[in-house]
Design a protein that fits this description.
The structure is a homodimer of 320-residue chains. Chain A has 320 residues and is α/β, with parallel strands linked by helices. Chain A has helices at residues 7-14, 18-30, 36-47, 66-79, 97-111, 127-143, 158-165, 180-186, 189-192, 206-218, 243-260, 262-287, 290-304, 310-317, and strands at residues 54-60, 84-90, 116-122, 148-154, 169-174, 195-198, 232-234. The model of chain A is unreliable at 93-100 (pLDDT under 50).
Chain lengths: 320, 320
Amino acid sequence: MSLRIDEGLIAGILRGDKRAIGRAISVVEAGRGSGREPAEALLDALFAHTGRAFRLGITGPPGAGKSTLVTALTKQYRKRGLSVGIVAVDPTSPYSGGALLGDRIRMLDLALEPGVFIRSMAARGALGGLSRAAQGAADVLDASGKDIVIVETVGVGQSELEIAAMADATVVVLVPESGDAVQAMKAGLMEIADLFVINKSDRPGAEQAAAAVGLILSFRVTHDPAQWIAPVLQCVASEDGGIVELDAAIDAYRAHQIATGAVTGKRAHQARERVRQIIEAYRHDGFWSAAKRAQLGAGVAAVLARQTSPYTLARRLMGD
Amino acid sequence: MSLRIDEGLIAGILRGDKRAIGRAISVVEAGRGSGREPAEALLDALFAHTGRAFRLGITGPPGAGKSTLVTALTKQYRKRGLSVGIVAVDPTSPYSGGALLGDRIRMLDLALEPGVFIRSMAARGALGGLSRAAQGAADVLDASGKDIVIVETVGVGQSELEIAAMADATVVVLVPESGDAVQAMKAGLMEIADLFVINKSDRPGAEQAAAAVGLILSFRVTHDPAQWIAPVLQCVASEDGGIVELDAAIDAYRAHQIATGAVTGKRAHQARERVRQIIEAYRHDGFWSAAKRAQLGAGVAAVLARQTSPYTLARRLMGD
């Protein structure tokens, strides 16, 4: 890649300058569209400076109080003297606009603190692009020297789950209402959770919800003594309830992963997945030129007339 | 494609012979693995004979009674003298094994009837492959002269939704329990539904559930007078309750789509999507040779050591 790197920008990021970090994440986000090359050049240059931050994925259904939990956890990290970078992926569903705004406004207070950087990212557009951009933003925050990088996503849809699963530890947040645990299981959240939080646990049913998650998890227990059993914590994030315990549980998970060596396999898997996602996206963009799309559009008429089969058209487009 | 086509098999399918249909679907299913070329040759040969069946997608969360509804609806179609082919995609989750088996056993009675063909298909393995196989099986049933082809899937996961959305009409089945409608919305079921069924409507809460779905749908009403508003029907499929009304509602949808011309756009979109899926799958398989996978595995070590960025490794694998 022969693009000129903005050395001033790199230097600014490395010394943790908020404006440089913000500008860099904008460059990374533009990589979802036409700005692919500058985004890549920047991430290539920063990559050697990454790998020191602990990356925390926080996900769960809409309304689980994820942003409130992230805010409370960040305050806890600040008390410990740790710096925190946050990437909050916002769903663009018209149904959730209102609640979301309120959550983000509460987060803004935090954004003014030194040692904290918050960036929200719209979930619009190609989801593969979102995953690349979210990971790129996490790289920028990591390179800027943040001790903890939190990526918050709504746990709906495969691609958003994938983002959460790219973290060193993934926390799945649920609420006590009956059925949430079962829905989480169906949505694939059980597979990616290293820790569970039943948030809003001052509501009725919290004990039962925790028990239900525990029961589902118990089906997964193997004979491997090194297996990590995801703990189920109860929190009331809006009042900082259970946050110290959550902090400790995340640390315990981190220590367990290092002690068992599991962290090595997990990181290798994540790196492989990341490269694979980049390749898929590039190959997709490379193949589907305007001409190819037009060819597909024209060919479909013959398919609808049953003159060409979908397989024949596919082979023709691939030039076989 | 220079493969020899089994003319006897084709002739058997076209005259609706059950053994020929069963064998053909096995060939199509084998196309998910190493049997790609025979599967394609068969589907290429059959394609000109497809397009006459009405394709019905039936989906919804586990436990909604989809199989019971499919059974009841099939009996109703038989009363009208229509022949029916069914592709039931079975989830392979260890959690749902028991209930599923019971449902399938009830379906077996139906399978013995003339004019009905039922095939279940495991959801294991690559999901892109599942979608191709399910559509291929629907093509076989269509070519065999079935008036109605039903594809039943569990509405969890993007790929299974895609399968349901490839139908002429998609029915989403829910139960009265509170929260089901909201979960359906989150899971993307609202977007693909042409009709809703609140099944097991003899349970408490059926009216409220129907009202909740109606409310969510009302947000989608536009000023377009030709817009189809998905009706919400209440059924008790186990007692054939509401099945005649469902049959009529599906027919009304079909008539509406033809009268407004919407069917043309929908079919063109589906054909495009199908060709696109075939291409993505082939290009994926074509790129990820054993050598390429080994190269990725070896390169990951350099990524973990922060010597190579994921983008640099991706470019190298693509031969840039």
